Amino acid sequence: LSRGAPGPVPAPGRLVHLDNLKVVLIAAIIAIHGVLGYTDTGWWSYGDAREVTLSPVSTGVLMAVVGPVSLLLIPLLFLVAGLLTAPAVERKGPGRFARDRLLRLGVPFVVYVAVIQPPVVYAVDHRWGNAYGSYWDEFLGSDGQPDAGPLWFVGALLVFSLVYAGWVAVRPPPATRLSAPIGARPLGVAAAAIVLPTFLVRLAWPLGSESLTDLNL
User: What are the backbone dihedrals phi and psi of residue 31, each rounded to the nearest 5 degrees, phi first?
Assistant: First the structure.
């Protein structure tokens, strides 16, 4: 572009600040998982195939920097998705919204869990002698459930989306709704309602416990 020429124009209806936020959050998630792949954390799948291992000092420094931030990345993405869900359902209607989510989220989730994840993990585990047994055993995992892998959040988002669409279909919201900004109090109440059950769940199933969604819900 020549100097002074206008940049690309965002598509109508796009919220540029949210798009930029999502790009930054996803880039941070990729970077953090890249770090975890070279540590002794023991719950990131690439750790079994890593070429080198970071020293305890390097691991401690990196985890001290990225650890607290990593706890906020996925929750913030879910918060953004939740804030955009209600307007999308209102615009499309619950039926069309549910169909769109099944196509955009459900199809990639099923393809990854059923087609991509099992052979990748099976090949890595067999390479390092950690496979459970047959391909079917690896597909189900040690707990007898399909492993959602890194796409657990897609399955969770699909569940939340369909539940909300069903709720709206049963109990439509009023035609006129106040669009007041969300204050600190409702966010604080929501945080408290999430933190306590999460803490109790983690006492029984620590981070990395294997289940359909790795208990990240």
Answer: -65, -45
